[in-house]
Amino acid sequence: MASQSYLIFSSSGLQLALEAAVVREIIRLPEITPLAETPPYLTGVINLRGHIIPVMDLNRRFGRPPPRYRLTDSIIVLALEDLRLGLIVNAVHEVICIAPEDIDASPSSRFPGARPPQFATRVAKVGGNILMVLNHLNLLPDNALAQELEEGEAPEPMASSSYFCPDASPEERAVFHQRAVSLRPALVEEDFTGLSPTAVVGLNGEYFGVDLELVREFAAIRHLILIPCCPDHIVGNMNLRGNILTLVDIRNWLDLPGAGLREAGQVMVAALGELSVGIVVDQVFDIIYLNPADLDPLPTAIRKANEPYLQGTALYGGKVMTVLNLANLLSSEGLVVAEEP
Questions:
Q1: At the top level of CATH, which class does the domain 196-330 belong to?
Q2: CATH numeric code, 4-182
Q3: What angle do CA 41, 11, 140 make, to 5 degrees?
Q4: Is 48 left (phi over 0), alpha (psi -120 to 50) or beta?
Q5: What is the pLDDT of residues 167-225, one digit of tens each?
Q6: What are 80-110's pLDDT values in tens digits?
Q7: Nearest of 139, 153, 16, 133 to residue 86 by alpha carbon
């Protein structure tokens, strides 16, 4: 059986994994509307481009006290069967591939008389860490309620005094509210047909979009090893779960100043044919679905030498995002230096 992609995230100190195939998108935590007569583990609902999405607090689902929500929290939006569900998490880390042999049933299910785990039903070995793997189907709320919310027939909200984060400062409430407002506009094409899954990454303070078809995973840069006698854009090598991965800096191909040697960024593992390379980025912001029709032509100021590596521009978060032609970048002569025996 082939390896499967998992989204790695954390919630109240727990390191968790979730099948990446069920993840629709990741958004910053907005204002959530609490509802009466719903299970306590449902914090409320949000209006996500015309869809009423129930939002679940994983801590409450696990039977733990709810945390104090913060501006740095996120919501992972899942597509489960015929409904969507949001999970509040503290941080989203990376997408990685995990081999079936590195996943096993939760040890707590093996104790005689112990109640088998309902949500974190498996564990995974990733490097030197052990992660809990969620059974996303068991997270589902009552089907009748979920279907009612998905169709937009939400129950009446609770009184305004029942704010989802009562300890939030006025400044935090303003940010939560603005995020909620920005999520409301509906997409013209709701079924994502023809849309391209795109990773939004940061380089030198600018947004760049990358087609996920050529991206295998994202990871943090760890234990970087210098390679002698290589061009400046070869950052070094790192050990990625037993495989040696060469890291490259593509800023020269984009007319951006080089970042130099550092271990504070992220690496985007991309593959084209037999070539596998790690592209260094400052940050991974989001996974979105981009309509090719929304791409604008490149500005005339773009040099002809850069055009093969760029597809166009699109708006992201009110700013201009440049969409890369990753296939051309990976095929570029001199990007990766072949190692001599």
A1: mainly beta
A2: 2.40.50.180
A3: 35
A4: beta
A5: 999 899 999 999 998 888 764 445 566 788 888 888 888 899 998 888 888 877 877 77
A6: 777 889 999 988 887 888 888 888 887 765 6
A7: 139
